[in-house]
Amino acid sequence: MFPSWRVPLCLQHIPSTRIWRGFVGTLLIGLLWGLSTTPLLADQNPTRSGASIQPYLDQVMDEVSEFRLDNGMKFIVLERHKAPVVSFLIYADVGGANEPTGQTGVAHYLEHLAFKGTKRIGTTNYQQEKPLLERMDQLFEQIQAAEKQGKSEQVSQLMTEFETVQAEASKFVKPNEFSQIVERAGGVGLNAATSTDSTVYFYSLPANKLELWMSLESERFLEPVFREFFKEKQVILEERRLRTDNSPVGQMIEKFTAEAFKVHPYGRPVIGYVEDLKALDRDNVEDFFESYYVPNNLTVAIVGDVYPTEVKQLAQTYFGRYNAKPEPPKIQLVEPPQQETREVTMKLPSQPWYFEGYHRPALSHPDHVIYETIASILSNGRTSRLYQTLVEDQQVALAAEGFSGYPGDKYPNLMLFYALTAPGHSVEDVAVALRNQIEKLKTEPVSQTELEQVKTQARANLLRSLDSNMGMAFALLEYEVKTGNWMNLFQQLDAISKITPADIKRVAQETFRPENRTIGKLLSQES
């Protein structure tokens, strides 16, 4: 997946298909981490650069194989025998946008619990542990009922018993056993991420551990045990406090997003609302798991030193144990066209920030690469228009960036711009400067030179993003799930090469309209 090191903490649950890094962030201590993203350009000639990449992409396509098990689970395999390592990624086509009303945060909660083990892993004796877990579930339900009825004395008694049972259950837990098995086998990069659109689980192993991965992962999602449920709830609530409740920028982002999406579930935070998180129980998570973690909603990418025939044989042995199930429910809600500018203003103990977002189509739309190109022109690095104008020339901002595909890109989303206001200037100064640059795209054709520079950088970043096994695995899966075919990933080079200044102007005029705009102003309490 794409790195989160340049993204505000409040935006980090947002992996997305951004082939070139026109993509978030520079600074703000505690929220933004700086890291150079100098493109690896072996050839500055756009035509020659494109020609040099296409044979590589064609070769990669020839080396990809795919198969689907009888239960509907799909595998995409790419042989790369450069080194004896393999990267594995399971892509669950479910994220925060799929959560039932009143259960925000359940997708992310499930991601946490997926590391807690199974009936064999993570426990010393599941048969003795199980009744304790069930008793905690019963007590939690009773505590909630007593709290609603205002029976404080009963709540206190139930809490005492709950803590006793929880302590007893913890004696059977083998903490982090799943992770330890992976690490002892030489695994690296064990992690997971939840976004609005998906939940992904990934790590790399030595090539001779292919069967271990098959065994571990098939068991993890065949018979999971969501132990330490209530302990993990406190971890997630603390995560929310850090990223949102105690973060002025986090609070602003949550309110801004809700204002931009009044109907579609993109308006809800992936981390979840506090009241929903507190009310979630194990049954909620298990129901969500049973609905969405079904074979035809899981896709696997395996990239590295493997052979497809062996992968298929092992997949049939291990993942073939899953029973076929009905397809999960699809999101039916559609965000209606915005009819007027929307605005959110907050006064908090923070440096002033300015946010501006415009609705745009989904990743599968033919204009997707044009939106990404616009994002690169405006905000990809120190040579971009926003940095040069707002930060260097006018000095109204300390940082000015933007990216396309917020908060996800499977469905229509936002092109988002934001800036940290410089001392002595106001968010209005930033808004005027930003708007001037946006208007230029609508009225003045982008020069062929500037466009070719962006295309060259896009080609280089496309190649770079696919160079690592994990980067390739993630890209293959996002295009497979979000566009219906992983091969569409390899059409990006051709799509990029065909973009014209007229395309940029057309999309800018269609998108950057006042009635399509949502504004966020985070003001200092002193202002």
Main attributes of the structure:
disordered N terminus; 6-stranded mixed beta sheet; alpha+beta; single chain; globular; 3 domains; 5-stranded mixed beta sheet; 527 residues; Cytochrome Bc1 Complex, Chain A, domain 1
Description:
This protein folds into three domains: 65-123 and 174-321, Metalloenzyme, LuxS/M16 peptidase-like (Cytochrome Bc1 Complex, Chain A, domain 1, 2-Layer Sandwich); 124-172; 345-524, Cytochrome Bc1 Complex, Chain A, domain 1 (2-Layer Sandwich). The relative contact order is 0.18. Helix 6 (210-222) packs parallel to helix 11 (308-318). The two termini are 40 Å apart. It is an alpha+beta fold and 527 residues long. The protein is built from 18 helices and eleven strands. The chain has helices spanning 46-63, 106-113, 126-148, 152-170, 177-184, 210-222, 229-245, 248-260, 274-279, 282-292, 308-318, 368-379, 385-393, 427-443, 448-465, 469-483, 492-497, 501-511, and strands at 64-68, 74-79, 85-92, 188-194, 199-206, 298-304, 342-348, 353-360, 397-406, 413-421, 517-524. The strands form two sheets. It has a six-stranded mixed sheet, sandwiched between helices.
